[in-house]
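haha ok so turns out i had the wrong file open the whole time. this is the CORRECT one, sorry everyone. sequence first:
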Amino acid sequence: MPSSLIRMFATAAILIILGIGLGLLRRDQLSIRWLLVGASLAFLNDCALTNGYGVLPDLFRGSSWNWQGKLLALALTLAVASHPAFGWRRSGLTLVQNMAGWKVTYAVAALVCLVFIGFAISMPNEPLDHQTLAFQLTMPGLEEEPFYRGILLLAFNEALRGRIRMLGIDLGWGALLSCVGFGLGHAFDYSHGAWSFDLMTMALTALPAFILVWLRERTGSLVLPVLLHNFGNSIFLVL
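then structure:
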């Protein structure tokens, strides 16, 4: 069995166990069905990103970036969002912005940009080439945001329906679970018969993910999260 497949089974199991644990706080607001849907989406997303765990031929062979996997994952996300149980608007795939409290919203977005710029200036830059820049300006935000802050967030919000008022919006446990999934996707791995988990990577991905999910819930749209995600990935190449 491919190592990536083993890792994804383990990630899905972690999300299910954590979701059930959070759901036990309010059993009347826990939907096991939607929790399984969310975990299944995480599994299918990883399957697309890895070209069917290596089964599908790579049409971009020779490229240093996973264009095909990202495009397949995006296509899968858009197909799920088109299902009536999800819907594009409910999944955040809309240009319409909730402008209530827009000054705070855009102040937070501007602050995030300044933090990215500060890190980019203080840290060594990655080698710059046209393909790398094109990939970082497009694929990370366009693929990961509609999935993690779109359909996965929606599924986990349906699975864990409780809400708390936080920083001006009503956030559910689904937001936390989607951030954990995002962090695990970057920090959790299985290779050569051994498990690895990088706590620093988990923190450096889950924290920005929380800011992005806050912006997504506050605006009702994925526009700002996509723009900020791609800005954060590409600014390290140009400064």
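Residues 38 and 142 are 19 Å apart (CA to CA).
again sry for the mixup
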